[in-house]
Design goal:
The complex is a heterodimer of chains A (317) and B (621).
Chain A (H helix, E strand, L loop, with lengths): L1 E7 L6 H16 L4 E6 L7 H10 L4 E5 H7 L16 H21 L2 E16 L13 E4 L4 H9 L3 E4 L5 H7 L4 E4 L1 H6 L8 E17 H5 L3 H36 L2 E3 L3 H12 L2 H4 L6 H23 L1
Parallel strand pairs in A: 1-2, 1-3, 5-6, 8-9
Antiparallel strand pairs in A: 3-8, 4-7, 4-8
Helix pairs in contact in A: 1-9, 4-12
Chain B lengths: L2 H7 L16 H32 L6 H22 L9 H5 L2 H34 L4 E3 L2 E2 H5 L1 H15 L5 H21 L5 H15 L3 H15 L5 H11 L6 H14 L2 H13 L5 H17 L2 H18 L4 H11 L10 H10 L3 H29 L9 H10 L1 H15 L5 H19 L9 H31 L2 H12 L3 H18 L2 H18 L4 H15 L7 H10 L3 H24 L2 H10 L1
The complex binds sodium ion (2 copies).
One sodium ion binds next to loops of chain B.
Chain lengths: 317, 621
């Protein structure tokens, strides 16, 4: 009889939570009740940092985290999320995630965690109080930055943007008073947090993917039988796919819903995209070694170049 | 120095049984006081210097945000240790102190001290277990200091508190050693019997009895959390994780900073100047002294965050004014006791901040939501005061324009303090913490440079240690209460409570009525901070299920708690007035009953007239 307690920030009334709930039912059924999962949704077990601490002391055995939460455990995870405009499509992001997953998973395993599934929740994009079209429009804008990472704040400052360290809980008031005038988040979270009411200008710029994973304590995982682990993995990867698909489609419906309310969309033309890409690529040297360790970033960039060239040559044939 | 400052500096929350204890350690005590003053000072200056540091050092400047957050941990544990040194860890009940005598009293106190020592030892152990897991992560704070090194203050602080409770457990070594032996026995019992079915009920009975006889609230609440986690075979380090998460919350630095601002004002001549001003404005009306009492008390409670401080600091000044208005002694007593809690809903009062943190809502919205309800409560109390005043004949004082103008000019710096706070908070130019730092820096300048009523080397360490003691005591209670709440979350009790409430209650009106009844009882039994931490996570989701947003729920909650300050058995204002005016608690209670009735009407208005709370926060959007 193994009881696993999982903490997540996902609120209870979301489709993502429902997917985790289905995974829980499947775990119980497939192990004949030997493994039970209790989910603590909506951040009742605290922030991502706190959930990780609770896993270390043994109060929680599993946790669903964003990549930036995971990067707290191991900075190598930053490679899947922290580099602005590194990926040109979701296919690229997913390809790289698959490619480096074994390396990241073995690093996490050394720290005592097993990855149950990886997933993303679509693109993080730009929402602002004033229209943003070109990189120069961002100059002097106040961007909400989650507190605690001086390197990230430094990166933003080097782009000419003012980082405003606030938690997401204070984001709405920050936007209303003008202390913050720009946020980067997924459309779904922008709608859920009602940020669009102040930040009603939307730039369809694919900044970074919002990636994440569900991880479990290796000690508990190792205490299970191989059959149990097999069944749990299958259910978990199914939940991961569900979460990814529903999150991506919810982003689209969220944009449509916000446009009906008051959101003004700025489309990306190929010229604009090139302009933004060179703007962000100029700060990659500040990312390398600070936000993301050198070797993994070099490897990802090499893999990306290779992926693009094979894709181009197969497309050209 | 003013009478207010005199009464404040001699204030003790609990009777000092051993006034001679501090003498031999006075050098060490002075060191602690200077240390906490230095930490509070850095906390005030760092957020303000942040832009300057960035300008000088450019990208080499490290973020002061997380440094200031960790300074709260330092103030909390150091302040807690000072409170233990001064035997002023807030207790919920003190039956042993007030009802027992002689040898029986000494033995009972040695036994309750043993319960305290056992509990704080385990809290130290829990914190140590947490820090040990943190050490392996290698996280750095800033300037090469690892985070775990600062976190080490958690177990260290609890260890010092344990030693100090032991030191004060008895006057003679026979009883002191017995106390230690009883604590050892209890620790052995816990080590070997915590798996037994009898463990949780037996431990709860011991804790309950000790709480009744008189142990610090920290012990009652922390002990309950420990027993529950042990009984459920869950790690006790969870309490430390929660404690740490609370104290390093990014907006928590506002709590010590606003409190500090209040202490700078209360210790100088501000109470006298403000009373003079409001007396000049309202004094000539029948019932004018009552209005003066209401306005000045509300102002001071909102800036010091502690209604007890208001009663201690202002009581002595307000009694003669009320008496000059021909108020009976009984009415004056009731008026001051009741008015002491009036600032609770007025920004930047601490409970508003604590609620915002616990319920995860923006502080600014809580501040705006509280304004109109605060005026409702103040108006209700003023009306009662004016009516009481009309019954008594008194000569009409002509309005003295000259005096009013002079008093206004005299009090201009104090009156600007809320303006500084509000402009900084809502202009979008400063973060919430910077706004709080600016407010306390402003109060510091007013007290030391403009009025020169406080001398930096003579007064500041003492005043700041006093402020640190209050903050330390509050943060310890909040921290362990978070641990207790986390047990409830772990056992999925809030989730079940939502289910139960939505199944058995069908209308929002009925829910609000039940909420009022529940909070009335809770206000009688609980101190405000544990009440917020323990009950709010339960109530917010239930309220949301009935369409009541967390801001409105918070104001209803705090309005009820305002009443709770005045209701026995756990009514802080009753105890404070009883202490300050040397009257028995029942006597104070009888005098306060009419004010309780008036405030109850206010609570009902705030509960059932939603726009009082929602109007202002909506205007900002
Ligand atoms: Na009470
Ligand atoms: Na109370």
């Amino acid at each position: 009889q193994t009881r696993i307690k999982l903490g997540t920030l996902l609120p209870k009334d979301t489709s993502q939570y429902q997917s985790l709930e289905r995974m829980s039912q499947e775990w119980r059924a497939k192990t004949s009740g030997a493994v039970t999962l209790t989910i603590y949704p909506g951040g009742v077990m605290g922030t991502e940092e706190e959930s990780i601490q609770k896993m270390r002391i043994g109060q929680l055995q599993a946790v669903t985290l964003s990549a930036s939460g995971l990067a707290d455990i191991d900075p190598y995870i930053g490679a899947v999320e922290k580099v602005p405009m590194l990926f040109r499509s979701m296919e690229e992001a997913e390809y790289i995630r698959g490619k480096i997953a074994p390396q990241l998973e073995s690093r996490l395993e050394q720290k005592g965690y097993v990855v149950l599934f990886w997933a993303d929740a679509g693109w993080i994009q730009v929402f602002s109080r004033r229209p943003v079209v070109h990189p120069s429009d961002l100059k002097g804008m106040r961007l909400l930055t989650t507190p605690g990472d001086p390197n990230e704040a430094e990166l933003i400052r080097s782009l000419g943007i003012v980082p405003v360290e606030r938690s997401w809980g204070d984001a709405l008031v920050g936007l209303q008073t003008g202390a913050v005038d720009t946020i980067v988040t997924t459309p779904f979270l922008c709608l859920a947090g009602q940020f669009y009411r102040s930040a009603n200008h939307y730039l369809a710029l694919n900044y970074v993917p919002l990636a994440g994973a569900t991880i479990m304590s290796k000690k508990v995982w190792d205490s299970l039988t191989p059959e149990q682990r097999q069944a749990m993995r299958e259910a978990a990867s199914k939940a991961g796919k569900e979460i990814q698909n529903s999150s991506r489609s919810e982003n689209e419906t969220s944009i449509a819903a916000m446009k009906r309310l008051k959101l003004q969309e700025q489309d990306m033309t190929p010229e604009m995209e090139a302009e933004w890409r060179s703007y962000f690529e100029a700060v990659y040297p500040k990312v390398r070694g600070k936000l993301v360790p050198e070797d993994i970033l070099d490897q990802v960039q090499k893999d990306l170049a290779q992926y693009r060239s094979t894709k181009n040559s197969s497309g050209g044939r | 120095m003013s009478a207010a400052a005199d009464s404040l500096s001699s204030a003790a929350w609990e009777t000092q049984s051993f006034p001679d204890h501090g003498k031999k350690n006075s050098f060490w005590s002075a060191g602690e006081n200077v240390a906490i003053a230095a930490v509070l000072m850095s906390m005030m200056l760092l957020p303000l210097l942040d832009p300057l540091l960035r300008w000088i050092f450019g990208s080499a400047a490290q973020s002061t945000g997380s440094i200031v957050q960790h300074l709260v941990l330092v103030v909390g544990m150091l302040g807690g240790a000072i409170a233990a040194r001064e035997q002023r860890l807030l207790a919920l009940s003190n039956v042993a102190e007030s009802r027992l005598k002689g040898a029986a009293k000494a033995w009972v106190q040695a036994c309750t001290a043993a319960v305290s020592i056992t509990t704080t030892s385990y809290l130290a152990l829990a914190a140590w277990q947490f820090v040990r897991t943190e050490r392996d992560t290698g996280h750095m704070l800033a300037y090469g200091i690892p985070v775990w090194a600062v976190e080490l203050l958690l177990p260290a602080g609890f260890a010092v508190i344990t030693l100090r409770i032991f030191q004060h457990s008895a006057r003679d070594w026979t009883r002191r050693i017995s106390c230690g032996a009883i604590a050892m026995l209890m620790i052995l019992l816990i080590q070997y019997c915590s798996a037994s079915h009898f463990f949780v009920p037996a431990a709860m009975i011991v804790l309950g009895a000790a709480s009744f006889l008189g142990v610090p609230a920290l012990v009652s609440l922390g002990g309950t959390a420990l027993v529950l986690f042990m009984g459920a075979h869950e790690p006790i380090a969870s309490i430390a994780v929660e404690h740490y998460a609370l104290v390093i919350n990014p907006v928590l630095p506002t709590l010590p900073l606003f409190t500090l601002a209040g202490y700078f004002l209360a210790e100088g001549g501000s109470p006298r100047r403000l009373i003079r001003l409001f007396y000049a404005l309202f004094g000539r009306f029948p019932g004018g002294p009552a209005i003066v009492t209401v306005v000045v008390c509300a102002f001071f409670t909102s800036v010091t965050g502690a209604s007890g401080v208001t009663i201690l600091a202002l009581g002595g000044l307000l009694v003669p004014i009320l008496k000059s208005g021909k108020y009976s002694e009984k009415d004056a007593l009731g008026m001051i006791t009741g008015a002491g809690s009036l600032g609770l809903l007025l920004p930047p009062c601490l409970p508003l901040i604590v609620y915002a943190i616990v319920a995860k809502v923006p502080i600014e919205k809580m501040f705006l939501g509280g304004l109109l309800p605060a005026f409702v409560m103040m108006t209700a109390t003023s009306i009662w005061g004016v009516l009481r005043g009309r019954k008594t004949e008194r000569p009409v004082i002509p309005f003295d324009l000259c005096e009013a103008r002079e008093a206004l000019w005299d009090a201009k710096w104090e009156l600007l303090l809320p303006v500084v706070a509000i402009v900084a908070l809502f202009s979008g130019l400063a973060t919430t913490v910077q706004a709080a730092a600016l407010t306390s820096f402003y109060a510091f300048v007013v007290a030391t440079v403009i009025h020169r009523e406080l001398k930096i080397f003579r007064d500041l360490p003492r005043i700041m240690a006093e402020c640190g003691l209050l903050i330390g005591g509050v943060l310890l209670i909040l921290g362990v209460s978070m641990g207790f709440t986390n047990y409830l979350v772990d056992a999925e009790i809030p989730a079940r409570a939502v289910e139960w409430a939505t199944h058995s209650i069908h209308s929002p009106m009925l829910f609000l009525l039940m909420l009022n009844l529940f909070l009335l009882v809770a206000g009688c039994l609980m101190e405000i901070y544990p009440a917020i931490v323990v009950e709010v996570p339960l109530l917010v989701p239930i309220g949301a299920a009935f369409g009541i947003d967390p801001i409105r729920l918070g104001i209803i909650f705090l309005a009820n708690m305002e009443l709770g300050y005045l209701t026995p058995p756990v009514g802080l204002n009753l105890l404070m007035s009883s202490y300050r005016f040397r009257k028995s608690v029942p006597e104070v209670l009888r005098a306060t009953l009419p004010v309780i009735a008036v405030l109850s009407i206010g609570v009902l208005l705030i509960t059932y007239v939603p726009w009082l709370t929602t109007l202002l926060p909506r205007l900002v959007e």
